[in-house]
Design a protein that fits this description.
There is one protein chain. This protein is of the alpha+beta class. Among the domains are: 12-100, no CATH class; 179-277 and 280-321, Lipocalin (Beta Barrel), CATH 2.40.128.630. The chain is built from 4 helices and 36 strands. It has helices at 12-31, 36-58, 63-83, 106-121, and strands spanning 84-89, 96-100, 155-157, 167-173, 182-184, 187-194, 197-204, 210-217, 234-236, 239-243, 248-253, 259-264, 282-284, 289-293, 302-306, 312-316, 327-331, 334-340, 344-348, 355-360, 376-378, 382-387, 392-400, 406-414, 426-428, 431-436, 439-444, 450-456, 461-465, 468-472, 478-482, 490-494, 506-508, 511-515, 519-524, 527-529. It has a 4-stranded antiparallel β-sheet. It has a 4-stranded antiparallel β-sheet with strand order 5-6-7-8, covered by helices on one side. Strand 19 and strand 20 form a beta hairpin.
Length: 531
């Protein structure tokens, strides 16, 4: 009797799967799609599953080996499900960060670090306002620079001094949160989550000593981005305005944190955005107003409040807002509030909120508007907007007719250029610089053409200081890059803080303040004042 030969496996199946995955990999690299890493992860899991099924049922193995493969696969999945947990996004790619279930959570790590720090600093003498600072200090009371566009005026980086490591002024633990600092004199203000309390905290710029804090029982939790406040406070005169992640705006005295008034930006209707309220409040000096954004559709999109008392003065719109912070700009000689919303960019009258113009923009591939980048106003009439999730970069022109009415016209739109997921593009001359899906890029504003893209910094942040870019990398490093259309030129890169860093850095003269959700630090940057 002829012995039966083992059935040969269908070898074309694994080959086809690997070829398909390779094709997807090349496609994501070519198109630079925002969802590339996530698509590759899902495809990798699917290919692994299909290969396991092929080995188990179609590869022609003897029965005992097929059963071994089957139960080994089931046991592996069960083991991973029982021992691993998702600790939010590992980076701006959105890929989950899987850790052992018995390892401490980010919140537990934060509490441990803060408790140890409190023991070490117990009884430390606080400094006074009269004590002199060691280095050049310049107030930085606004979000993301004086014009909210990441461009820092009045300072210049001495690049020839970057051959030496940055001097650490102080470094310490901090509560959860993704906002930055506002600085006036010796006081540096930020927001953080400590346990179930949301804090507005004031630190000494020179020493990092906690001078005061204002705490309320509030906590925003979100599985991908993590817990805690997102927005950067602003300082106006002797008042701090801080918007928490749950949409509550507090006005506090800068000297001791005394509470002045509170406003709930979501009280009029609508719900919170998916990743929490992150837009910093805006101060309109001439009108004496504070501008805040709302939540999803159903409530006021833009809200104007009395800076002194928090009373409502005017509201505009019922469109879903975004994570971008409103700006005030002069367009064709008129002061306007410019705001990026989920599906539009608008210009409003500061006095009463009347709509001057509106420009429709793509909503993108995710809900609740993942638009984070700040708009840049160019030549008093053009507006640059950048975003990820299928939006890209666009430049439009705001035109003014003889009768005083406004209209808008698209200049160019490129979906695969300057995809600034968590950050913004900074403009110098006719060029814009920004982190395009984790790598630094430069585009020509005349046509949207990309001139170069280089340097791997992850989903961090960037500032532009008189021809020099300061890059806060996602891994915590601090880099200095020449802002030139001629090509990528990294001048220096130094270790900064540890861990995932999405927070915007603050440059207050020679003091560079950086932080993430566990650690904060201050470094001395070789900067000098310029006209």
């Amino acid at each position: 009797m002829e012995k039966k030969q083992p059935r040969k496996g269908r070898l074309w199946i694994p080959g086809l799967l690997l070829i398909a995955y390779a094709a997807l990999f090349l496609w994501t690299r070519q198109t630079e799609t925002t969802l590339g890493p996530f698509l590759l992860l899902l495809a990798g899991l699917l290919v692994t599953l299909l290969l396991w099924l092929w080995v188990t049922f179609l590869a022609g193995l003897r029965p005992r080996y097929r059963w071994f493969s089957f139960f080994s696969g089931i046991a592996t999945v069960a083991f991973l499900a029982l021992t691993l947990r998702n600790e939010g996004s590992s980076s701006g790619t959105g890929i989950p960060r899987l850790v052992w279930k018995w390892s401490p959570t980010v919140d537990e790590q934060s509490r441990t670090l803060l408790a140890a720090q409190k023991e070490q600093t117990e009884g430390t003498d606080a400094t006074t306002e009269e004590e002199a600072l060691s280095y050049l200090a310049v107030d930085s009371t606004e979000f993301y620079g004086p014009n909210r566009n990441g461009v820092i005026k009045g300072l210049s980086i001495q690049t020839d001094a970057l051959d030496q490591p940055l001097k650490e002024v102080w470094k310490q633990a901090i509560g959860l949160g993704w906002g930055g600092y506002a600085v006036k004199g010796r006081i540096a203000i930020t927001q953080e989550q400590r346990g179930d309390e949301e804090w507005v905290s004031a630190y000494d710029l020179e020493t990092g000593t906690l001078k005061w804090h204002y705490a309320k029982q509030r906590r925003f939790s979100e599985g991908m981005g993590g817990d805690g406040p997102r927005a950067t406070p602003i300082i106006v005169g002797e008042t701090v305005y801080a918007l928490g992640a749950t949409g509550v705006l507090d006005a506090l005295n800068i000297s001791d944190g005394t509470h002045q008034w509170t406003h709930d930006a979501l009280a009029q209707g609508g719900s919170n955005l998916t990743w929490g309220k992150a837009a910093s409040p805006l101060y309109l000096e001439e009108q004496g107003l504070i501008i805040v954004t709302g939540g999803t559709s159903g409530g006021a999109t833009i809200q104007a409040l009395s800076a002194d008392y928090g009373d409502s003065v005017w509201n505009w719109g019922n469109e879903t807002s975004s994570y971008s912070s409103p700006v005030v700009a002069t367009i064709h000689g008129e002061r306007q509030v410019v705001a990026v919303n989920e599906g539009s960019v608008v210009g409003l009258s500061p006095a009463n909120g009347t709509l001057a113009w509106s420009f429709d923009i793509p909503k993108g591939s995710v809900p609740n508007s993942a638009k984070v980048g700040q708009p840049s106003i160019i030549d008093g009439r053009k507006v640059l907007v950048t975003a990820s999730y299928g939006v890209g970069a666009m430049l439009f022109d705001v035109e003014k007719a003889e009768d005083g009415s406004f209209s808008t016209d698209l200049v160019w739109h490129v979906r695969n250029r300057m995809k600034t997921k968590f950050s913004s593009a900074c403009v110098q001359g006719n060029y814009a610089y920004g982190l395009d899906e984790g790598r630094l890029a430069c585009i020509d504003l005349s046509n949207g053409k990309r001139l170069w893209k280089d340097g791997k910094y992850g989903y961090g942040q960037n500032l532009l200081v008189n021809g020099t870019l300061i890059i806060q990398a996602e891994d915590g490093d601090i880099a200095f890059v020449e802002a030139t259309p001629d090509g990528f030129n990294e001048l220096a890169r130094f270790p900064g803080i540890q861990g995932k860093t999405w927070n915007i850095p603050t440059l207050a003269g020679e003091y560079l303040l950086v932080r993430n959700d566990l650690e904060a630090a201050c470094y001395r940057v070789p900067a000098r004042a310029v006209e």
